[in-house]
Amino acid sequence: MLRALVIDDMASIRKEYISIIRSNCPQVSIVGEADSVASAVRQIKQLSPDLIFLDVDMPDGTGFDLLQRLKPFDFKVIFITGHEEFAIKAFRFSAIDYLLKPLDAAQLADAVKKAQNALNREHFDFKLSNLFTNMERPKSLQKLILKTFDKIYSVNIQDIVNCESDGNYTIFHFINAPKLLVSTNLKEYETLLTPHSFFRTHKSHLINLAYFDHFLKADGGNTIVMKNKLAVPLSVRRKEEFLVLLDNL
Prior knowledge:
By secondary structure, this protein is α/β, with parallel strands linked by helices. The chain contains eight helices and 17 strands.
């Protein structure tokens, strides 16, 4: 049984969360609730929960402030956030699980299951550190968490040359590092990386435009060569859009 604490500044929302949790997560026992960073710190120290449901924005600070005050900690965290685009992207880049308001019962149950099977605290600290770094850095210097079979990496987005689909996996090619195979499909990374000057040239390839080198015109201009000498196909339907992008580089 996971002993859990619900943290949100609005009593009505905490009541709603507790009801949803009790109805959908029988493995969770709610042992307390808090409405601010200060009260959450007191409750966590007193109750020693296994899991906290943590709102990002509170009157006296943020959920991140709370975690900074409690480090090191051994409880698991499920963040809850509103529809704020920057926060959502920050969580996704850092591979930290989060739930959007209003809570969806199925997503909640899945998040709790992930928390039960979570990697150790050192891995969470690593991902949280990556999140804080991205929030402080300009977009050009941001990092992306990549999880392979046995390791977790924090990579510089600007060092990624190409992402290649391999079924439900993605192969990352770098300018000066060995490639990595991660168990997330290419569509997920297209959503994350397109704002960072990446372009989907083909159903199986996503390239960093900063590393474009030249076309091979012999085949009709449907092959792109990157600066690491990797040849990447360009689909006919994406060719015109790609040429327009090149004109604006």
